[in-house]
Write a structure and sequence with these properties.
2 copies of one chain form a homodimer. Chain A has 5 helices and 12 strands. Chain A is α+β, with helices and mostly antiparallel strands and 189 residues long. In chain A, the strands form 3 sheets. In chain A, strands 1, 2, 3, 4, 5, 6, 9 and 10 form an 8-stranded antiparallel sheet that branches. The relative contact order of chain A is 0.22.
């Protein structure tokens, strides 16, 4: 698979504001690196847990090759694909990292992070570098609590068209944005 | 606030399939009951954790009146509002249950559950009755792990238009559904 090499330019973004991209619940691509090898997995089971420190929880099934790589390296990058990458998202979910170099196979560009070893995916709209914060629920629920230590976000579009998985091979796409800012109590914003 | 009383008719739905509605990451309304009083809160910080048992994780900040009611009653109902309820969703987030009877104030219809004390919200597209499964992370992260013990879903539309919160008073709305079922390996569906 070949892909154009024009990658979105990303800016630093406040780690305490990553909810803007993750709270809507998109499918994300989680990249990792361990002993010189990289991997990527698709993931839809995640939640914001706290603003400061910037905490997110990810359920990474132990059946995934990424599980052990992330548990050992204690880090990962959460990347946000848009609908332009729909077929790549499905392809990554279909293949296992113990047999395939996913960056090469899917024509994705690994970009060095600043805080963690795991590579960012250049083609994605945003990338959040994460360090393991608490593994208390890893054994019981495969639930990793990470701190986002560095965030990179493309400037445009402000509301990228993201994929939200429903199971059964069907995604819903985030569409129009609607503001109710005027209705919110100031303290609730 | 007055509202029409024609409530969507809901059917039983398999508890192992609630990811269809929750994995896309919508804003939900969480209803609770404790010592004869009911409450409702808006919530966007949740994730699916397991298919069977059907587990979901909810971050319910201790600043919410609902937190104690849910911790004590060890149950809640996760209700899925559509865009028809946008202003109600914002209003519920703006008000505190220690001062306001939210069902009455917002013209919502409490419907008896089958498995838990907390009432379903009749106007919502779906309602998932939940029993506390594990409170190990409640004290440290306000993170409740619930088992969905009964699910009720309106038959139509198949893909309801749901709200996904980005912060700053802005929601993105789930729009068109796209299927890539043909691309998935059978075991991945």
């Amino acid at each position: 698979m070949k892909r154009s090499r024009s990658l979105p330019t990303k800016n630093d973004f406040p780690v305490g504001d990553v909810r803007r991209y993750l709270e809507p619940g998109p499918i994300v691509l989680v990249s990792s690196k361990w002993r010189g090898k990289t991997n990527i997995m698709t993931l839809g089971w995640h939640t914001i847990l706290e603003f400061s420190p910037s905490l997110v929880g990810l359920m990474i099934s132990s059946g995934n090759h990424s599980h052990e790589m992330i548990a050992r390296s204690k880090s990962c990058v959460i990347n946000l694909p848009t609908t332009a990458l729909t077929d790549t998202v499905v392809g990554i979910g279909n293949t296992s990292g113990d047999r395939v170099d996913k960056f090469a196979h899917f024509g994705l560009t690994p970009v060095d992070g600043e805080e963690v070893e795991a590579p960012l995916i250049g083609e994605c709209h945003a990338s959040f570098e994460c360090r393991l914060h608490d593994d208390v629920l890893v054994r019981r629920y495969n639930f990793f609590i990470f701190e986002v230590v560095k965030a990179h976000v493309a400037k445009r579009p402000v509301h990228p068209e993201t994929l939200h998985y429903t199971g059964e091979g069907v995604f819903v796409v985030s569409g129009k944005a609607i503001s109710r800012k005027a209705l919110f109590r100031p303290g609730m914003l």
